[in-house]
C-alpha cells in the first residue's frame, strides 16, 4: 500500500483505460466505479480494493494496475474500480454506524477520487457507472448480475456499504450524496488541466 495524490490516481486510471474498457465491454456495459466501506477502523487497509481512503482523507492504492480484478463486488469485478472508505467497524444499521462512521474528510476525498477517475475513464457520474456496494448488491442499475443481496434482501451476506453516509440519513441516500458531491467537483473543473 502506498499513499497517492489525486494526480497519481488520474495517471493510474489513464494507464488502465483500455484494459478496463475492454473488460467492461466484454460484459456489454461501461466501466463501473464501486464505493465500499471496509467495515474496519479508520487506518486499517485491505488489499481487496484498488483505492482506500483513511479517516483523515488520505488516499492509498493497493495496486498500480486499476484493471487488476479485485474480489470486492460480487459478480461485478471485471472492468471496474473498487474504492473503499476505511470505516464502519461494528456498524449495525442506518441509525448506528458504530464508532467509525464515514468522516467528512473521507467523503470529501471520495468525491474527488470519483471525479478524477470518471474524468480519466470518460465516465458520466450517475447510478449506471458509480454505485455504492449497497446499490450494486441490490442490482439498482438493472443489470441483475446476481440475486439481490442488498439491504432488506434477507441474504445472510447482505452488503449495505454506504446505504447511508450519516446516521439517520434517508435510506438509500448514500449513493446520491456521493454522486452529487463528485459531480460538484466535476463542475469546479478538478484537475481538468492535468
Question: What does this molecule look like?
Answer:
- A 6-stranded mixed sheet has the order 1-4-3-5-2-6.
- It is globular.
- It has one domain: Lysozyme-like.
- The mean pLDDT is 97.
- The chain is built from 5 helices and 6 strands.
- With 194 residues, the protein is α/β, with parallel strands linked by helices.
- A hairpin with a 5-residue loop joins strand 3 and strand 4.
Count of runs of 4 or more consecutive helical residues: 5
When the domains are counted, the total is 1
Proportion of residues in β-strands: 5-15%
Q: Rough shape?
A: globular
Based on CA atoms alone, the radius of gyration comes out at 15 Å
First-to-last CA distance: 24 Å
Instruction: Find the CATH topology.
Output: Lysozyme-like
Mean pLDDT: 97
Give the spatial strand order of the biggest sheet.
1-4-3-5-2-6
CATH class: Alpha Beta
Reported for the largest beta sheet, the result is: 6 strands, mixed
Q: How many β-strand stretches?
A: 6
**Run of helices and strands:** EHHEEEEHEHH
**Spans where pLDDT lies below 50 across 5 or more residues:** none
Q: Roughly how much helix do the residues carry, as a percent range? A: 25-40%
Q: Architecture, CATH level 2?
A: 3-Layer(aba) Sandwich
What class do helices, strands and sheet pairing give? alpha/beta
Domain N-acetylmuramoyl-L-alanine amidase: 44-140
GO biological process, one term: peptidoglycan catabolic process
InterPro entries: Amidase/PGRP_sf, Amidase_domain
GO molecular function: N-acetylmuramoyl-L-alanine amidase activity
Amino acid at each position: 500500500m502506498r499513499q497517492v495524490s489525486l494526480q497519481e490516481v488520474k495517471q493510474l486510471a489513464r494507464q488502465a483505460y483500455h484494459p478496463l474498457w475492454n473488460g467492461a465491454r466484454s460484459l456489454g456495459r461501461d466501466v463501473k466505479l464501486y464505493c465500499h466501506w471496509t467495515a474496519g477502523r479508520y487506518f486499517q487497509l485491505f488489499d481487496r480494493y484498488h483505492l482506500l481512503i483513511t479517516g483523515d482523507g488520505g488516499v492509498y492504492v493497493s495496486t498500480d494496475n486499476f484493471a487488476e480484478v479485485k474480489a470486492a463486488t460480487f459478480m461485478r469485478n471485471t472492468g471496474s474500480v473498487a474504492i473503499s472508505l476505511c470505516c464502519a467497524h461494528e456498524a449495525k444499521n442506518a441509525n448506528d454506524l458504530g464508532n467509525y462512521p464515514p468522516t467528512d474528510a473521507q467523503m470529501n476525498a471520495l468525491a474527488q477520487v470519483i471525479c478524477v477517475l470518471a474524468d480519466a475513464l470518460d465516465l458520466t457520474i450517475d447510478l449506471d457507472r458509480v454505485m455504492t456496494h449497497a446499490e450494486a448488491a441490490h442490482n439498482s442499475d438493472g443489470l441483475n448480475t446476481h440475486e439481490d443481496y442488498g439491504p432488506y434482501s434477507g441474504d445472510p451476506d447482505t452488503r449495505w456499504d454506504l446505504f447511508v453516509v450519516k446516521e439517520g440519513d434517508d435510506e438509500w441516500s448514500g449513493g446520491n450524496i456521493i454522486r452529487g458531491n463528485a459531480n460538484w467537483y466535476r463542475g469546479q473543473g478538478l484537475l481538468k488541466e492535468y
